[in-house]
Amino acid sequence: MKSMFAEPLMARRRTAVLRASLAPILACALALPAAAQEAVGPPADQATQAPAAPGTSIDTNAEQAPGASSDIVVTGSRIQSSGFTAPTPTTVIGAEQIQANAQPNIFNTIAQLPSLQGSTGVTTGTNSTSSGTQGLSSFSLRGLGTIRTLTLLDGQRVVGANVTGVPDISQFPQLLIDRVDVVTGGASASYGSDAVGGVVNFITNKRFTGLKGNVQGGISTYGDDESVLVQLAAGKSFANDRLHLIVSGEYAHEEGIGPGGFGEDAPAGRDWYTTATIVNRGITNDGRPQFNYREHAQAYQYTLYGLINNGPLQGTAFNRDGQPFAFQYGSNGVPTRNNTGNVAGCYVGFCIGGDLSGNVGIGTTLKSGLDRYNGYGRVGFDIDADNEIYATVNISQVDSNNQPNPGAAQSSLTMRCDNPFLPASVSALCPASGTFGYGVSNAILPNIKVEPSRKQYRFVAGANGKVEALGQDWRYDAYYEHGENITDITVSNMLIPRRYLRAIDATRDASGAIVCRDPVARAGGCRPINIFGGTPLSPEALAYLQPANGPFQHTRQTQDVASANISGNAFSTWAGPISVALGAEWRHEFYRVTADPYGNGILTGATAYNADYPADPIFDNGGGNWYAGNYRAGRGAYSVLESYLELNVPVLNDPDGAGTANVNLAGRATNYSTSGTVYTWKVGGTWDTPLDGFRLRAVTSRDVRAPNLSELFAAPISVNVPNFTNPFNNSAVAISQNTIGNANLVPETARNTELGAVLSRPEWLPGLSLSFDYYHIKIKDVISALGAQQLVNYCQQGVTQLCGAFFLDGPGGTGNFVNVQPFNLASIKTEGFDIEASYQMKQPLGLPGSFTVRGLATHVINFVTDLGLPNTVPIDSAGVNTGATPSWKWLATQTYAQDEFSLFLQQRWFSDGVFGSQYVVCDTNCPVSTANAPTIDFNKMDGAFYFDIGGTYNFSTGLSAYFKVDNLFNRDPTPSPQTNTGVDINPQLYDIIGRVFRAGVRFKF
């Protein structure tokens, strides 16, 4: 099936090799003191004696590359100059800290930093079929989203693993990572588009020699999520130490955590799932809250094996054997038995308690399964002592799998009373209309399985070093990168609703046999099915409903980058040398998507009907024939041409008096082929005050994020939503939700300001480092799309310009749709501060070795999103624990290390929060509930504290064994209520796995 979409592998390789050219090393010094990076941490000579705390950089390679000197490459700046200190705060995670965390994926370690909020990984997006982000590991700084965080590998861009442009950290060569720099501030003037929230830069060891490896296994306390990690790297020098070759390979398997079942049956004995739901009373002005927080919510439109949900027979349910019984509504609800399908004594769409067996929320995968394969190679040749040419290749594959909600729930079916599968006792009581409303969870259907596979081919070639010109040494790097990412998403056990509706509409033919009523469907292979109970389907009936070849999408995404950078000291003044960095970059991004004809529609060529997807006259040739996973064909491309200039100007040089100070300036002009030219800039400075070790820093910048390929040229995706709330009559309807692109988008612009103070290893306490940094970010022209429910709700409330984007009045749900499209309509403003502190003590209490304590904290003061629509008010999501920005979040570590062993303790915590800041909490005498200030009876979510412990025993210099236990006290997640019976947890904040044990062996020769 895949061969008709995928390009031949050899053709892709030939293209990549022909296009490959030059590439840089932005990190001239692989090891640097934390203070020089503006991260707080112990001195380098102390840090090498103990496992590193977060922010500590470890010198794992004393040998420097050609051209390297004492100059430091600061990720927050392009300036390379001795003694230069960038004004932008940067946290550094060293190799020792990465090892101490003992994660199967380095992404998990970095994502724990308090400044990273809203990152996506294997526990997010698991209820999705069509998003394409399942199993995709990408970072989000400041809660601004993965698309506003620029992730680099050795200072270079990486081809996106999704059409949003974000790379997948799972595809990086993780064993060779020396450190990770996290720049918590705008860096567009230095690095270009997307660096609004900041930059995460992975620095590899480019001079590794020898052989090293790591073998690790893990399992959760519930006996699931088994993991295996195998890593190996080798490096050797040839030709009198001028030719350097490094290769690495790794395999990682994470079994994931499968789904529970129906009702509240969480997987593997977990007992925390309670179907927490925010239910709507539908009354806004009676002095009581409109919304109530309730656990054990029951969706009363459908049940596990079927429920008549309106008319005279409402409340008649069916058991597994197909026998009717009176359904047990929660809340002592009584069905109204009219056409509305309401239940007296219950909420809109929900009762509380009763028979919960039909709920489908916990039937979603909790953690995607993941397999990743990574191969990496680097060859470098020293032309002389100062200059190197090199090439790298990175080929990787990441396979994941997940299950969205089980079955394929239907809540608004219309059944005929003459259906031969209907028990006679029920058909005898049928209404005069001869039909009745029906809902069923479809537990008789196999569950959907989604399997994305991402393959990356990345080739870089370049040169770096230094040359003398105008009496000064000038550093340079130049590179060309070609990257390709091939993503195939295969979905199995997917229902075709048009066939389902014909299969459930059964009748008897002239011979008395039960057949599908529609003769066209019968001719196409329709087999009647019985949905009154749990009768298993025949293989023929199942093949008709869920074809073996399900939804399929093939995406080819390419990135080509040519970049050249120069830096050095232009001339000197009385205060010191003026340093300059300048460069230019060209980048081209392209993607093309092909999809199966059932979802995409009938076009020509590869998307036409074929042997894998035969024609069926009952299909809609416009596509959208699947229950979910209606992928669409599309393509798009844009080019970027930009140049920048950065200056460091010393303005004060009086170490024994007023101190030293510098001003850092940068500007960049960027031309996008889709939206024209934009300008970004940065102005900052640092002052080393006369106070011992005390530095002040400040920076303000204009940053930019251009619309990505998905936002501009998104291949339309249709998702069937069976239980969508129609606010015009408070009814539940079935819709097709269509996601489309917008080629008229313009770049977002941001203003980012940071003010900070650093106390770095004062003479009176040389083991101490502290920092405090305030930040304020405002983004205009934010590219955003309202959710389908938001869009319809705002129309109902008077925002008429949105009313043309949907239709909800089709009979039986036929033709209902909501179009979701991005616009430059919103703004985001956030402010807060970061605190970092560390202290290292040698020979604590007279014991050998060292003891290191470190803490990092982020406080989000506000995070305000303004949709920019009439009759809407800004929403502050700071402290909203259903999202990604808790009010407080911190990470603390304590490490004791000596020659034979080390012990590592870690604490992760975030503060209590609320469901939403828009709610007005009240029990009685409530004000009138409105869309901007809805009333609710409860609005609190507990925070969480997690305690991790690990340790290492060194058998010899090159051989050690280690262990790690995450979430030692097995802290359960706090319910994160939905407005439906979905998975009521928030994996962006809460640990949903539970206690996890890991152990392994490392070696290095």
Give an overview of the whole structure.
It is built from twelve helices and 47 strands. With 1005 residues, the protein is mainly β. Among the domains are: 2-257 and 370-388 and 454-463, Ferric Hydroxamate Uptake Protein, Chain A, domain 1, CATH 2.170.130; 708-744 and 786-820, no CATH class. It has a 22-stranded antiparallel barrel. A five-stranded mixed β-sheet has the order 1-4-5-2-3. It has a four-stranded mixed β-sheet with strand order 32-33-37-36, with helices on one face. The chain starts with 8 loop residues before the first helix and ends with a strand.
Q: Gist?
A:
InterPro entries: Beta-barrel_TonB (IPR000531), Beta-barrel_TonB_sf (IPR036942), Plug_dom (IPR012910), Plug_dom_sf (IPR037066), TonB-dep_rcpt-like (IPR039426). With 1005 residues, the chain is mainly β.
Relevant terms:
mainly beta; 22-stranded antiparallel barrel; Ferric Hydroxamate Uptake Protein, Chain A, domain 1; 1005 residues
Which helices and strands appear, and what pairs or packs with what?
Layout: H1 9-19, H2 44-47, E1 90-94, H3 95-101, H4 106-110, E2 149-153, E3 156-157, E4 177-183, H5 188-191, E5 198-204, E6 210-220, E7 227-238, E8 243-254, E9 277-280, E10 291-294, E11 297-299, E12 307-308, E13 316-318, E14 324-326, E15 334-335, E16 343-344, E17 350-352, E18 369-384, E19 387-401, E20 410-416, H6 424-427, E21 435-440, E22 449-469, E23 472-492, H7 497-504, E24 506-508, E25 514-516, H8 519-523, H9 539-545, E26 552-573, E27 576-595, H10 597-600, E28 634-654, E29 659-672, E30 676-688, E31 694-705, H11 709-713, E32 717-726, E33 731-739, E34 748-760, E35 768-784, H12 788-796, E36 806-807, E37 817-820, E38 823-842, E39 850-866, E40 875-876, E41 888-897, E42 901-910, E43 920-921, E44 935-936, E45 944-956, E46 959-966, E47 996-1004
